[in-house]
Design goal:
The complex is a heterodimer of chains A (about 325) and B (about 270). With about 325 residues, chain A is of the alpha/beta class. Chain A has twelve helices and 14 strands. In chain A, the strands form three sheets. A six-stranded mixed β-sheet of chain A has the order 6-7-8-3-9-10, sandwiched between helices. A four-stranded antiparallel β-sheet of chain A has the order 2-1-4-5, with helices on one face. In chain A, a hairpin with a 5-residue loop joins strand 1 (about 1-10) and strand 2 (about 15-25). The two termini of chain A are about 40 Å apart. Chain B has helices at about 5-10, 20-40, 40-60, 75-105, 105-110, 120-145, 155-180, 185-200, 215-220, 225-235, 245-265. In chain B, helix 4 (about 75-105) packs parallel to helix 7. Chain B is globular and about 60 Å long. In chain B, about 75% of the residues lie in helices and about 0% in strands. Chain B starts with a helix and ends with a helix. Chain B has eleven helices and no strands. The interface of A and B includes residues 28, 83, 146, 150 and 183 of A.
Chain lengths: ~325, ~270
């Protein structure tokens, strides 16, 4: 459904936003870009939906080249942008109707389809409210519905739950899974929420600074770390502790974090006493030890050497989030 | 429905994109209409402001003898077509500039990614803005007649044509301004430094005769003077440049501003 080959975008002024990414999205699959803010996720989406021209590489969506046949691409994709893109003065139904008209759906199909997509996102009762009375979650649901109006074969979701509270986020996940099941549509989404990628995506690509570092099914990525568990030891002396871990479990994969050593080992719970004794005899201070099952967070840490911090938002994003909050409050 | 097989059955017929461009024009027009009808406070504000100008200036100076206005035409009658033109101009310009709010609120992306040309989008928006402006102008014209301005109902079609030219010019100008601006704050600057001076130099409030010579020249150079003069000529029979010149300049201005607006919108980034 989507094939990208060395897709590249250099903005005027020389900023390299996307650096030769190659990937494909299969029919009926949910494929996700997981990465921090500024990794190039939105730029990639904008190129795939023909809003931005790539400066290198190529991409085909539904078999059509994004540069050569933009209108054919536009007709076969649905998009939910990162920020709300609704007309707030109009009702939910009008937003859907106007969208359908611009995509050339004839009247009888339009009316039936509006009912279908409203049911899909549970908004039939609120269809005739002006959008400005909607909550943030309802707006997102309406945008999902609108993205599906014209029977797209690929749906693009740019940070579909950004700025929503935890409960609403889970509800949106359920809707996304429902529409994948009911409509059989392929979905390309971007997110910086580990849990979101883990929960929704059939396959994930971890993207950082415009490059794909690794991609695969979340389960494969996690088991690829080696070992059935994760052991996180916090210490003021990570280098010293890493040496201790190396001596103790020679083959284990170890990642150094800030003030912590992360080891991917089998059965980590039984290994804690050994570690404590070894650290003690080597004279390396140990603050705490945590064990858990591997998550995408660990995969991300392994390939980037960093954690995604959700609070590290750029000033522009903080401003946008405030604006969203204000718009909802009105 | 379920799965992709179901989608094929209920999906759109082949060639369903026929007429999408026309639909886009219609949708953009319809949207302006709905917003106009629903935003009562905005409608009221748009009508009340020119009404205050008309009542405040027109009734206050009604008995005054103003050089350049022939005897037998009182100031209210002179002013009324000018205020009609002013209200058409402001209303259309705001319709054009509202592209900026669409960008601010994200809706512009939704429109620009639809499989229709930007030309259709800007055309629909322009027609919508012009329709709203003409309705407001008609309300003001009726109000001025009720206040005692002697306007000729037979001149309405010609006046409407000049109002349309003025509206198209102002929407085009507004779209062009909005395409260049990052945020709505810059708009105030454009209003105060460009639009207000042009308005005072446009025969809206006083005639181009009986004023200092330099001022008169500026008023004749200002293209905005011509649709204003045309509206006045149509409604009251009083014109300073002659209907032919009024029509030619008004049409030229509309064409130029529409082209500028469409060009700017075409290059706009989201």
């Amino acid at each position: 459904m989507v094939e990208a080959e060395g897709l590249t975008k250099v903005y005027e002024g020389g900023v390299l936003a996307v650096d030769g990414v190659s990937f494909s999205v299969a029919e009926g699959e949910i494929f996700g870009f997981l990465g921090p803010n500024g990794a190039g996720k939105t730029t990639t989406i904008k190129m795939l939906v023909t809003l931005l021209r790539p400066t290198g590489g190529s991409a085909r969506v539904c078999g059509h080249d994004v540069v050569g046949s933009p209108n054919l691409v536009r007709r076969c994709v649905g998009i939910v942008f990162q920020d709300p893109a609704l007309d707030r003065e109009l009702t939910g139904r009008e937003n859907l109707d106007y969208h359908a008209r611009m995509y050339g759906l004839p009247r009888e199909i339009r009316e039936r389809r509006i009912g279908e997509v409203l049911d899909l996102v549970g908004l039939r009762e609120r269809a005739d409210w002006p959008v400005k009375r909607y909550s943030g979650g309802m707006m997102r649901r309406l945008e999902l519905a609108r993205g599906l109006m014209h029977y797209p074969r690929v749906l693009f979701l740019d940070e579909p739950t950004l700025g929503l509270d935890a409960q609403t986020r889970r509800a949106i996940w359920d809707y996304i899974l429902t529409l994948k099941r009911e409509e059989g549509v392929s979905i390309f989404l971007t997110t910086h929420y580990m849990e979101e990628a883990d929960r929704l995506c059939d396959r994930v690509a971890i993207i950082d600074r415009g490059r794909i570092l690794v991609s695969g099914a979340p389960g494969d990525l996690k088991s690829g770390l080696g070992g059935g568990g994760v052991l996180i030891a916090r210490t003021p002396d990570p280098d010293g502790l890493a040496a201790v871990v190396g001596d103790l479990w020679g083959g284990a994969r170890v990642t150094l974090g800030e003030g912590e050593v992360v080891a991917y080992v089998d059965d980590p719970g039984r290994r804690v006493p050994d570690l404590v004794r070894a650290a003690d005899s080597a004279g390396v201070p140990l603050d705490s030890v945590e064990i858990r099952r591997p998550s995408l967070e660990d995969v991300y840490l392994r390939y980037t050497g960093r954690r995604i911090r959700e609070e590290e938002a750029s000033p522009a994003e903080v401003m946008r989030a405030r604006m969203r909050a204000r718009m909802r409050g009105r | 429905m379920g799965g992709s097989a179901g989608r094929d059955l209920v999906g759109p017929p082949a060639g369903f994109d026929v007429g999408a461009e026309a639909q886009a024009v219609y949708v953009m027009w319809l949207r302006q209409m709905k917003r106009f009808v629903r935003a009562r406070s905005r409608l009221l504000g748009n009508v009340i402001q020119p009404f205050i100008f008309l009542a405040g200036l027109g009734l206050g100076f009604r008995g005054a003898r103003i050089p350049g206005i022939p005897a037998g035409i009182d100031y209210l009658t002179f002013l009324a077509p000018g205020i009609v033109g002013m209200s058409v101009m402001f209303s259309s310009m705001f319709a054009g500039v509202s592209v900026l709010w669409d960008r601010q609120f994200g809706f512009l992306k939704e429109v620009l990614v639809a499989p229709v040309s930007r030309g259709s989008i800007v055309l629909g928006r322009t027609l919508g803005g012009a329709t709203v402006a003409l309705m407001q102008g008609a309300i003001i014209a009726a109000a001025s007649a009720a206040m005692g301005a002697s306007v000729d109902p037979l001149g309405t079609p010609a006046a409407a044509a000049f109002m349309l030219a003025l509206a198209l010019s102002a929407v085009g100008f507004g779209v062009a301004v909005a395409s260049k601006m990052e945020d709505p704050h810059g708009f105030q600057l454009v209003m105060n430094l460009l639009v207000m001076p042009l308005m005072f130099l446009s025969t809206t409030f006083f005639p181009p005769e009986g004023v200092p010579e330099a001022l008169g020249v500026l008023m004749r150079i200002n293209p905005l003077s011509y649709p204003m003069d045309g509206i006045r000529w149509a409604l009251t029979g009083l014109g300073y440049f002659g209907p032919a010149a009024d029509a030619a300049v008004s049409a030229g201005l509309a064409a130029a501003m529409l082209a500028l607006g469409a060009w700017s919108f075409g290059r706009m980034e989201v």
